[in-house]
Design goal:
There is one protein chain. With 205 residues, the chain is an alpha+beta fold. The protein contains seven helices and nine strands. Strands 3, 4, 5, 6, 7, 8 and 9 form a seven-stranded antiparallel sheet that branches.
Protein backbone atom coordinates (compact mmCIF):
# COMPACT_ATOMS: atom_id res chain seq x y z
CA UNK A 1 0.00 0.00 0.00
CA UNK A 2 1.22 3.51 -0.82
CA UNK A 3 1.33 5.69 2.29
CA UNK A 4 -0.36 9.08 2.23
CA UNK A 5 1.30 12.01 3.99
CA UNK A 6 -0.30 12.52 7.43
CA UNK A 7 0.74 16.21 7.43
CA UNK A 8 -1.91 17.26 4.92
CA UNK A 9 -4.33 14.42 5.53
CA UNK A 10 -7.97 15.25 4.89
CA UNK A 11 -10.83 13.40 6.62
CA UNK A 12 -11.35 11.36 3.45
CA UNK A 13 -7.67 10.46 3.24
CA UNK A 14 -7.78 9.49 6.90
CA UNK A 15 -10.74 7.22 6.14
CA UNK A 16 -8.77 5.46 3.40
CA UNK A 17 -5.49 5.52 5.36
CA UNK A 18 -3.63 4.29 2.29
CA UNK A 19 -4.21 4.08 -1.41
CA UNK A 20 -4.31 0.49 -2.71
CA UNK A 21 -1.29 -0.71 -4.67
CA UNK A 22 -3.51 -1.30 -7.70
CA UNK A 23 -4.33 2.43 -7.76
CA UNK A 24 -0.68 3.47 -7.88
CA UNK A 25 -0.06 5.75 -10.88
CA UNK A 26 2.82 3.62 -12.13
CA UNK A 27 0.49 0.63 -12.42
CA UNK A 28 -2.28 2.62 -14.06
CA UNK A 29 -0.10 3.94 -16.89
CA UNK A 30 1.44 0.48 -17.43
CA UNK A 31 -2.03 -1.03 -17.76
CA UNK A 32 -2.35 -4.25 -19.73
CA UNK A 33 -5.35 -4.26 -22.05
CA UNK A 34 -5.87 -8.01 -21.70
CA UNK A 35 -6.82 -7.72 -18.03
CA UNK A 36 -10.04 -5.89 -18.91
CA UNK A 37 -12.92 -7.86 -20.37
CA UNK A 38 -16.42 -7.44 -21.66
CA UNK A 39 -18.92 -8.50 -18.95
CA UNK A 40 -19.84 -11.67 -20.86
CA UNK A 41 -16.17 -12.75 -20.92
CA UNK A 42 -15.58 -12.57 -17.16
CA UNK A 43 -14.47 -15.72 -15.36
CA UNK A 44 -15.93 -14.47 -12.08
CA UNK A 45 -19.38 -12.96 -12.40
CA UNK A 46 -20.21 -9.97 -10.13
CA UNK A 47 -23.32 -10.17 -7.98
CA UNK A 48 -26.56 -8.70 -9.27
CA UNK A 49 -26.23 -5.67 -6.98
CA UNK A 50 -22.62 -5.14 -8.03
CA UNK A 51 -23.57 -5.43 -11.71
CA UNK A 52 -26.10 -2.65 -11.28
CA UNK A 53 -23.23 -0.34 -10.36
CA UNK A 54 -20.74 -1.62 -12.92
CA UNK A 55 -22.98 -1.83 -15.97
CA UNK A 56 -25.08 1.31 -15.61
CA UNK A 57 -24.49 3.52 -18.65
CA UNK A 58 -25.60 6.77 -17.05
CA UNK A 59 -23.68 9.29 -15.01
CA UNK A 60 -22.00 7.76 -11.96
CA UNK A 61 -21.72 11.26 -10.49
CA UNK A 62 -25.51 11.64 -10.62
CA UNK A 63 -26.07 8.28 -8.93
CA UNK A 64 -23.58 9.04 -6.16
CA UNK A 65 -25.14 12.43 -5.54
CA UNK A 66 -28.54 10.81 -5.29
CA UNK A 67 -27.33 8.08 -2.95
CA UNK A 68 -25.57 10.60 -0.70
CA UNK A 69 -28.50 13.05 -0.71
CA UNK A 70 -26.16 15.61 -2.23
CA UNK A 71 -23.35 15.19 0.31
CA UNK A 72 -20.89 14.27 -2.44
CA UNK A 73 -17.28 15.32 -2.93
CA UNK A 74 -14.36 14.93 -5.32
CA UNK A 75 -10.86 14.93 -3.86
CA UNK A 76 -7.94 15.17 -6.26
CA UNK A 77 -5.10 12.75 -5.51
CA UNK A 78 -2.89 14.08 -8.29
CA UNK A 79 -2.99 15.69 -11.73
CA UNK A 80 0.03 15.48 -14.00
CA UNK A 81 1.40 14.61 -17.43
CA UNK A 82 2.38 10.99 -18.09
CA UNK A 83 3.23 8.68 -20.97
CA UNK A 84 1.83 5.20 -21.68
CA UNK A 85 4.61 2.62 -22.18
CA UNK A 86 2.32 -0.23 -23.24
CA UNK A 87 1.87 -0.10 -27.02
CA UNK A 88 -1.42 -2.03 -27.06
CA UNK A 89 -2.95 0.14 -24.35
CA UNK A 90 -1.75 3.31 -26.08
CA UNK A 91 -3.20 2.18 -29.40
CA UNK A 92 -6.70 2.24 -27.92
CA UNK A 93 -6.47 6.03 -28.14
CA UNK A 94 -5.56 5.90 -31.84
CA UNK A 95 -2.19 6.20 -33.61
CA UNK A 96 -0.11 7.91 -30.90
CA UNK A 97 3.67 8.16 -30.56
CA UNK A 98 5.28 6.44 -27.52
CA UNK A 99 6.36 9.78 -26.05
CA UNK A 100 3.00 11.52 -26.53
CA UNK A 101 1.93 13.04 -23.19
CA UNK A 102 -1.37 12.21 -21.52
CA UNK A 103 -3.16 14.23 -18.88
CA UNK A 104 -3.60 11.95 -15.86
CA UNK A 105 -6.04 12.72 -13.04
CA UNK A 106 -6.66 10.51 -10.02
CA UNK A 107 -9.52 11.33 -7.67
CA UNK A 108 -11.49 9.95 -4.74
CA UNK A 109 -15.29 10.14 -5.04
CA UNK A 110 -17.01 10.16 -1.67
CA UNK A 111 -20.51 10.32 -0.24
CA UNK A 112 -21.24 11.49 3.30
CA UNK A 113 -17.50 11.62 3.93
CA UNK A 114 -17.01 7.94 3.02
CA UNK A 115 -14.74 7.01 0.08
CA UNK A 116 -16.80 5.10 -2.50
CA UNK A 117 -14.90 5.18 -5.81
CA UNK A 118 -11.31 5.72 -6.91
CA UNK A 119 -11.26 7.14 -10.43
CA UNK A 120 -8.57 7.75 -13.03
CA UNK A 121 -8.82 9.78 -16.22
CA UNK A 122 -6.39 9.74 -19.15
CA UNK A 123 -6.60 12.22 -22.03
CA UNK A 124 -3.99 12.51 -24.81
CA UNK A 125 -2.56 15.99 -25.16
CA UNK A 126 -3.78 16.34 -28.75
CA UNK A 127 -7.38 15.99 -27.52
CA UNK A 128 -7.14 18.99 -25.22
CA UNK A 129 -7.39 21.72 -27.82
CA UNK A 130 -10.34 24.12 -27.92
CA UNK A 131 -13.13 23.70 -25.38
CA UNK A 132 -11.75 20.41 -24.08
CA UNK A 133 -8.76 22.27 -22.67
CA UNK A 134 -10.87 23.10 -19.64
CA UNK A 135 -10.70 19.45 -18.58
CA UNK A 136 -7.26 20.02 -17.09
CA UNK A 137 -8.69 22.79 -14.91
CA UNK A 138 -11.56 20.86 -13.30
CA UNK A 139 -10.02 20.87 -9.85
CA UNK A 140 -12.55 19.27 -7.51
CA UNK A 141 -15.42 19.45 -9.99
CA UNK A 142 -16.62 16.01 -11.18
CA UNK A 143 -15.65 15.08 -14.73
CA UNK A 144 -18.93 13.21 -15.23
CA UNK A 145 -20.95 16.33 -14.65
CA UNK A 146 -19.13 17.96 -17.57
CA UNK A 147 -19.20 14.96 -19.90
CA UNK A 148 -22.88 14.10 -19.56
CA UNK A 149 -23.88 17.66 -20.38
CA UNK A 150 -22.09 17.65 -23.73
CA UNK A 151 -24.00 17.31 -26.98
CA UNK A 152 -22.56 14.59 -29.19
CA UNK A 153 -21.00 12.56 -26.38
CA UNK A 154 -20.48 8.90 -27.28
CA UNK A 155 -19.17 6.05 -25.17
CA UNK A 156 -17.49 2.74 -25.86
CA UNK A 157 -18.66 -0.53 -24.39
CA UNK A 158 -17.89 -0.93 -20.70
CA UNK A 159 -14.98 -3.21 -19.76
CA UNK A 160 -14.74 -4.86 -16.35
CA UNK A 161 -11.93 -6.14 -14.15
CA UNK A 162 -12.11 -7.88 -10.79
CA UNK A 163 -9.56 -6.24 -8.52
CA UNK A 164 -9.84 -8.55 -5.52
CA UNK A 165 -12.53 -10.27 -3.44
CA UNK A 166 -14.17 -6.97 -2.51
CA UNK A 167 -13.47 -4.43 -5.26
CA UNK A 168 -14.27 -4.21 -8.96
CA UNK A 169 -13.18 -1.83 -11.69
CA UNK A 170 -14.76 -0.68 -14.93
CA UNK A 171 -13.53 1.52 -17.75
CA UNK A 172 -14.80 3.01 -20.96
CA UNK A 173 -13.70 5.54 -23.55
CA UNK A 174 -15.77 8.66 -24.01
CA UNK A 175 -15.56 10.61 -27.26
CA UNK A 176 -16.20 14.30 -27.75
CA UNK A 177 -15.54 15.73 -31.21
CA UNK A 178 -13.99 12.30 -31.96
CA UNK A 179 -11.39 12.88 -29.23
CA UNK A 180 -10.82 10.06 -26.70
CA UNK A 181 -11.12 10.32 -22.92
CA UNK A 182 -10.53 7.18 -20.86
CA UNK A 183 -12.36 7.02 -17.54
CA UNK A 184 -11.57 4.15 -15.19
CA UNK A 185 -13.57 3.74 -12.00
CA UNK A 186 -12.73 1.41 -9.12
CA UNK A 187 -15.75 0.64 -6.96
CA UNK A 188 -14.87 0.11 -3.32
CA UNK A 189 -16.69 -2.38 -1.11
CA UNK A 190 -18.07 0.54 0.92
CA UNK A 191 -20.21 1.39 -2.13
CA UNK A 192 -20.84 -2.09 -3.53
CA UNK A 193 -22.51 -3.11 -0.28
CA UNK A 194 -25.11 -0.38 -0.81
CA UNK A 195 -28.18 -0.74 -2.99
CA UNK A 196 -27.94 1.52 -6.04
CA UNK A 197 -30.50 4.33 -6.39
CA UNK A 198 -32.96 4.14 -9.27
CA UNK A 199 -31.43 4.23 -12.76
CA UNK A 200 -31.10 7.62 -14.32
CA UNK A 201 -31.11 8.74 -17.92
CA UNK A 202 -27.88 8.02 -19.81
CA UNK A 203 -27.56 11.79 -20.16
CA UNK A 204 -28.20 12.59 -16.51
CA UNK A 205 -25.96 15.10 -14.86
Amino acid sequence: MSKRSPLNESPIQAELKTLPDWFALDRLVHESTGKWKAPRQLDAVPSAACSQWLLDSGSLTARLKLLSAGVFSVEVVDELWATLPDKEFRSRFGPIAPDHPFWSRRVILSGNGEPWVLAHTLIPEHALGGDLGQLIRLGEKPLGEYLFNQVGLTRSDIEIKRIDDQNWGRRSWFFLESKPILVTEYFLSSLLLKSPPPELSARSK
